C-alpha cells in the first residue's frame, strides 16, 4: 500500500497547499529547536487514569482540558494543550460491557468537543463538532463499551478547531479490554501503547503551528518524546501503534527486518494473526502487533524506523535495547493461530453510496461529494440495522492523499481499484486510506443500538478542519 515513492509524493501535499492563494504562511522557516541526543530519553508510558469513583455498574473519570508546560525535548518546556496536564493525555482503560463516564472540564480559552475515535457511543456523547463545551463548562460523556476490545483514542473535534487543538496536544488513548479474548497475549507491563505524531518546534522549543505547513513538522514523537529508548526483556511484547499525526503518513519496520505479528486492527483483534515486516499507518489508524525479542542477545539495539521519514528525527523514531543476561525471560505468552471470532457482516446490501473526496482549487476548499461540511445538513440518511456499501473515490491528482473515518461503526474494507485488500486491512476498520486516484469500497453494517447524527470525514485533520467532512443520520 505504502512505499517510499508514494509517501514522498505525499510530503509534497503541503507544498501544493502553500501555493494556494488563500493560505497564510505563518512559519516561513523551520525552527531549529535544541538538538536531541537520540535514544537517551526513556520512553514514557502515558499515565493510566484512575476513576474518581466506581460503583457496581460504572467507572467515573474526570479530566480537565487545560494549557500546560510539558517537557518534550530534554531540559526545555513547551506550551501545550493537555488533558490533566499530561501529553499525551492519560490512558483510560475500560472493560468491555462496563460503562464509563468521563466528566470533562474545559479549562481552555477556546471551545472543545471530545470525540472517542472508534467508539460505538450514543450520538449525544460522540463529540459532534457543534456540540462543544464553552470555556469553564463541564459535561459528562457516556461510553457504554458495548463493542469488542480495541485500541481507541480520544481527541478534540470542535468545528474548524480540531486540527490545531489536536496538534497542540488534545489526544489520548482509550483501551477497551476483555479478559476472555485471547488471554495468552502479552499483558500488563508487556502491553505498551505507542502514540506517534509529528511536531514542529521553534528554537525555544515552542510549537510552530500552521494548518498548511505539515511538511515542516520535522520531529516525530513517540509517547510525546523525540527518539526515545525502551529497554525490553528477552520475551514477547504487545505494542499498540497509533498514528496520531494530523497529516503525516508513516510506515514502520524494525531495523533488523524482524517480523511484527499483527494481531489487531482499528476495531480490535483480527480473526487470525498476520506476519508483517512493514506496516503503513495513515493518520488515526491503529495496529496491535506482537514482537518477540527472545532470540536476541542481551545488549542488542534495534530501531523502530518510519521508512518514509526523510531525516533521522522522522525516521529513527524509537530504539529498543534488549536487557542483558544470557537467560531468556520466563514468558508464557503466545499468539494463537485463531485470535477471535468476528461478527459477520452479511447481505443484503440495501444501499450503495458514492463518497467523492476532492480539493477545489478555485475555492481553496476540501470537499466531500462536491460540498463543504455544513453541520446543519444531513448528507446520508441510514436505516438502523441496514448494510451498505460505500464507494470512496479520491478524485484528486497526486500528491493529495485522503482517508475516510466513519464515526460509530467498524467496517470491512472490500477492495481497492477492484482488487481485494490484504487480510490485515480488511476488518475491523474505522479509518481507511484512500490514495490519489483510487476507489476503495467498504461494507458497513449499521448494527449499533444508537440512532442519530454522526460525522464521517477525512482524517488528515488538516483537511477535515477545512470542511472535508459530512454526516449521516441513522433513523429507526
Ligand atoms: Cu483529506
From TrEMBL:
User: Recorded GO terms, molecular function?
Assistant: copper ion binding; oxidoreductase activity
**Sorted alphabetically, which PROSITE patterns does this protein's record hold?**
MULTICOPPER_OXIDASE2
Q: Which InterPro entries did the record assign?
A: Cu-oxidase-like_N (IPR011707), Cu-oxidase_2nd (IPR001117), Cu-oxidase_C (IPR011706), Cu-oxidase_fam (IPR045087), Cu_oxidase_Cu_BS (IPR002355), Cupredoxin (IPR008972)
Question: Where does the Plastocyanin-like domain start and stop, copy by copy?
Answer: 66-180, 224-295, 355-474
The cross-references to Pfam families, in alphabetical order and at most eight, read: Cu-oxidase, Cu-oxidase_2, Cu-oxidase_3
- SUPFAM superfamilies, per this entry? Cupredoxins (SSF49503)
Key words of the record: Metal-binding, Oxidoreductase
Q: Which residues cross the membrane?
A: none
The UniProt entry, under Gene3D superfamilies, shows: Cupredoxins - blue copper proteins
Please give the family membership noted in the entry: Belongs to the multicopper oxidase family.
Q: What is this protein called?
A: FtsP/CotA-like multicopper oxidase with cupredoxin domain
